[in-house]
From TrEMBL:
Keywords: Repeat, Riboflavin biosynthesis, Transferase. One of its GO terms (molecular function) is riboflavin synthase activity. Homotrimer. GO terms for biological process: riboflavin biosynthetic process. This is Riboflavin synthase. The keyword Repeat applies. Lumazine-binding repeats lie at residues 1-96, 97-198. CDD domains: Riboflavin_synthase_like (cd00402). It comes from Leptotrichia shahii. Its EC number is 2.5.1.9. It catalyses: 2 6,7-dimethyl-8-(1-D-ribityl)lumazine + H(+) = 5-amino-6-(D-ribitylamino)uracil + riboflavin. The lineage of its organism: Bacteria, Fusobacteriati, Fusobacteriota, Fusobacteriia, Fusobacteriales.
Amino acid sequence: MFTGLIEETGKIIDITKKTASIEITIRGKKVIEKAQIGDSIAVNGVCLTVTKLKGSDFTADVMFETIERSGLKRAKAGDIVNLEKSLTLTTFLGGHLVMGDVDCEAKILSITDKGIAKVYEFQLDENYRNNMKYIVEKGRVTIDGASLTVIDVNDEAGIFSVSLIPHTIENITVGMKKTGDFVNIETDLFGKYVEKILKFDSSENEEKNLKKSNLTMEFLQKNGF
């Protein structure tokens, strides 16, 4: 689990592409301090497990599901990435609870100056537009591992916006990107739990109503329903 507050940016040193996975080696400084094999480090918001350590470099394996949903499928040696080590019970939680499980990618549609800030407009991948239900105005969304506040949403078009101050732009990879580039998106976990609970409550109520009316699935099927 993470906070969405980027500790540093690192560089991809090497990528080995296999049949259904990737082995990736990244160079960092802060996230490597006191790191051990088996620790979790978020790379552009993707939770990866350290499998090797050497100096300031760490290596991790990326499975097929993660490759499909995230921008790591386009990653190459030399790319700069956001890094955050998993939180502890004493970590200052300045962002929000981030799992490091990327839902999908989004494309940068526009970057607009607004006072000292820049407004970034994103559109979710068409195959994952259902995730818009978890993105709400003034709520939190994780973009390439950074916890950011949503300022505007267009559910039908799958579009949302965030506003970044100069300090944020200078310290995360989104500030290095341009219109047309892609970013990793993780939506708020709590919305997913609420949806699941409501779904089960709805199913249970429907079942109770059927019992009260003496209707059964067997009766409906026999009578052509």
